[in-house]
Amino acid sequence: MIKKILVAEDSSVIQNLTKKILSLQNYEISAVKDGRKVIDKLESETFDLILMDIHMPVMDGMECAREIRKMKNKNADVPIIAITGNANNYSLDDFKEAGINGYLPKPLNYDTLVETVKGYMVDGN
């Protein structure tokens, strides 16, 4: 069964590169550009993993993660990986408190991205 990943990233360049690289790994990728659209998407579809930029318009990644954890469907427990250029502004406790399982720093290392995603796909299911 093909695993589904939701990429929440307002940068079209990062979004497109991430989609391309993960598609080559045989994942089904959906992408949105803000936190509100993440919530909308999760109300109608189920995902195996969310890659979420912390700094997005409308609703940032931290607030969005908290909203996801409050949902009343399967997506409430989906692993969330934060993508941030400002990881130093947050502690692991901040991420955990928001319901985020891990993070990847920007600029993204795509080998690390693939390894991280694979790790969650094996551990999570």
Topology:
Blueprint: E1 4-8, H1 12-24, E2 28-32, H2 35-44, E3 49-53, H3 61-69, E4 80-84, H4 92-98, E5 102-105, H5 110-124
Parallel strand pairs: 1-2, 1-3, 3-4, 4-5
Helix pairs in contact: 2-3
* Mean residue pLDDT: 92
* Number of distinct beta strands: 5
Beta content comes to: 15-25%
Using only C-alpha atoms, the radius of gyration works out to 13 Å
CATH architectural name = 3-Layer(aba) Sandwich
Unreliable stretches (pLDDT < 50, length at least 5) are: none
Q: What's the domain count?
A: 1
Q: How would you classify the helix and strand content by structural class? A: alpha/beta
N-to-C SSE string, H for helix and E for strand: EHEHEHEHEH
| CATH class category name | Alpha Beta
Distance between the termini: 11 Å
Fill in the CATH topology: Rossmann fold
Number of helices: 5
| Superfamily (CATH H level) name | Response regulator
Please bin the fraction of helical residues. Answer: 40-55%
